[in-house]
């Protein structure tokens, strides 16, 4: 499991950074480790900073605040995590250029979901969001 997660993380960082000589747009990306999950199963999330500056990830206590969104028809509805019920200090989680991290979330109810993560570009101080691909919980 640890080796598989390491390979998953390494591929996420390589995909997000690309060729350093290439001047293509850089971004913050999230990759999940699958497409179909059972209710309550852990969904591994690799977040990579492909920007040239540090970002600050919005926190949920000591973990990133992944916002779970469920597809309902043609729209996405926010499913609020347990984090919204907690009282924690607002200390952003730094992520350096080219760096990444792996976290996980669990979804209990069947449906089609995606994850949203808010972050702040530390050069421009602009708040932005990145989204995972869709996944299904059965």
Give an overview of the whole structure.
This protein has one helix at residues 2-17; strands at residues 28-32, 36-37, 42-49, 55-57, 59-60, 63-64, 67-72, 75-79, 93-95, 100-106, 111-121, 127-131, 135-137. The strands form three sheets. Strands 2, 4, 7, 8, 9, 11, 12 and 13 form an eight-stranded mixed sheet that branches. Strands 1-3-10 form a three-stranded antiparallel sheet, with helices on one face. With 138 residues, it is mainly beta. Mean pLDDT is 82; it is low at 1-5 and 7-24.
Topology diagram in text:
Layout: H1 2-17, E1 28-32, E2 36-37, E3 42-49, E4 55-57, E5 59-60, E6 63-64, E7 67-72, E8 75-79, E9 93-95, E10 100-106, E11 111-121, E12 127-131, E13 135-137
Parallel strand pairs: 2-13
Antiparallel strand pairs: 1-3, 3-10, 4-9, 4-11, 5-6, 7-8, 7-11, 11-12, 11-13
Task: Report the principal-axis shape.
Answer: globular
Specify the helix fraction band. Answer: 10-25%
Helix and strand sequence: HEEEEEEEEEEEEE
Rounded to the nearest angstrom, the distance between the terminal CA atoms is 22 Å
What is the overall pLDDT average? 82
Taken as a percent bin, the fraction of beta residues is 35-45%
Largest sheet: 8 strands, mixed
Low-confidence stretches: 1-5, 7-24
| Number of beta strands | 13
Counted by DSSP, the helix tally is 1
What is the C-alpha radius of gyration, as a whole number of Å?
15 Å
Kindly name the structural category.
mainly beta
């Amino acid at each position: 499991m640890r080796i598989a997660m390491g390979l998953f993380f390494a591929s996420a960082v390589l995909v997000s950074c690309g060729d350093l000589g290439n001047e293509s747009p850089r971004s913050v990306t999230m990759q999940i480790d699958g497409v179909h999950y059972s209710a309550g199963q852990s969904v591994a999330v690799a977040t990579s900073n492909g920007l040239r500056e540090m970002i600050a990830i919005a926190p949920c206590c000591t973990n990133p605040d992944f916002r779970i969104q469920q597809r309902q028809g043609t729209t996405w509805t926010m499913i609020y995590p347990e984090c919204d019920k907690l009282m924690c200090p607002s200390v952003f989680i730094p992520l350096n250029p080219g760096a990444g991290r792996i976290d996980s979330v669990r979804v209990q109810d069947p449906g089609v979901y995606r994850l949203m993560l808010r972050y702040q570009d530390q050069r421009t101080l602009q708040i932005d969001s990145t989204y995972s691909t869709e996944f299904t919980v059965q």
